[in-house]
Amino acid sequence: MAAPVKSPVDGAVPAMQKLTIGKALNLGLRAAMEADDKVIVLGEDVGKLGGVFRITDGLQKDFGEQRVLDTPLAESGIIGTAVGLAVRGFRPVCEIQFEGFIFPGFDQISSQLAKLHYRTQGKVKVPVVVRVPFGGGIGAVEHHSESPESLFAHIPGLKVVSCSNPTDAYWMIQQAIDCDDPVLFFEPKRLYHNGQLKSEVDTTTPPGPLFASRVVRQGTDCTLVAYGPSVKVCLDAAEAAAEEGRSLEVIDLRTISPLDLAPVFESVRRTGRLVAVSEASSESSITSEIAARVQQECFYSLEAPVLRATGFDTPYPPSKLEEHFLPDLDRVLHTVDRAMGW
Questions:
Q1: What CATH number does domain 214-341 carry, 3.40.30.10, 3.40.50.300, 3.40.50.920, 1.20.1290.10?
Q2: Range 44-50, long-range pairs (CB < 8 A, 24+ positions)
Q3: What would be the CATH architecture of the domain defined by 16-202?
Q4: pLDDT tens string 203-252
Q5: Is 24:169 a contact under the CB 8 Å cutoff?
Q6: Which residues form the Transketolase-like pyrimidine-binding domain (predicted)?
Q7: Which residues are catalytic?
């Protein structure tokens, strides 16, 4: 486990701020850079433009071109450069502009970034964070709305996490940067600037460790487990279900690898039912692993099979069809109905 996150510079940010996820990430990156001059941000258009989603807005202006680097359009080069920087004692934070662009860098991530610590018997650490805006819902073209997180969770040596709210965005990015292992940090891009999620963030105290899931709404009838953009969908579904007298518990995984399923097991032993929700396709996925593990650990507590509400096992569709592809409130509630009617 990484050392505790260094606190932001005194007076750098107010103790409490009302933030969107996008602004929280920006301030989290800023706090990490103020706390450690070895933190370097690199990626396509992260400097002068501030990133296509403006998550790195203002960082190059305040920290200079030596610490916030605009790179060529070459994901393999971005990751490879970050590996070299990490070996030399830096803590690079790479931005992959869209999740569908990560695959040219897949070889560097899987063959070098994930393996170097193990290959050197612990002598070389690679504290690299790869920020990945992911998921659909923004009306984008091909390669801009995918959910490839399961691919990276399958690779030993990588940590994989995803935030779903401003507080986690602010603190998890700092905790990821402070981690001595490589971390893939999946960010729900359609929630970056969602005003409905804007909330007070305590910038003085982290709410908990990085690799831990959390119950975000308590319930008694059925458990919903999700991560990233699907957490909001589940919370909305739980709110709608409550109007009909049904109590749904919602768990935000937060960590995809390693999976922290202890709160899920505890919840399922009480509710007897589980629905796993994700935008990713269902086959060979995070939801597959959750279903297998819950069946293994909670078999005698289950009142129904573990069910899933996910994206379909097809390539991501054109933007006109994405509302039919993404698991929404209605699909989640329909799946809950199936579980309750078993």
A1: 3.40.50.920
A2: 44/70, 44/71, 44/72, 44/73, 44/78, 44/95, 44/97, 45/70, 45/97, 46/70, 46/71, 46/95
A3: 3-Layer(aba) Sandwich (3.40)
A4: 998 889 999 999 999 999 999 999 999 999 999 999 999 999 999 999 99
A5: yes
A6: 19-194
A7: 144
Q: How many helices (H) and strands (E) does the chain have?
A: 12, 14
Separation of alpha carbons 47 and 58, rounded Å: 8
- The residue type found at 52 is V
pTM above 0.90, yes or no: yes
Token pair, residue 170, equals 């602010």
Rounded (10°) CA dihedral 10, 11, 12, 13: 120
Residues belonging to the chain:
342
Domain definitions of the chain by residue range: 16-202, 214-341
Q: What is the pLDDT of residues 247-265, one digit of tens each?
A: 999 999 999 999 999 999 9
Residues 6+ apart with CB under 8 A from 223: 248, 249, 250, 251, 264, 267, 268, 271, 273, 274, 275
Residue indicated by tokens 């990133």: 51
Identify which of 85, 80, 29 has the alpha carbon closest to the alpha carbon of residue 53: 29
* Tokens at 320, concatenated: 């006109």
Would you say the C-alpha torsion 172, 174, 180, 184 has a positive or negative sign?
positive
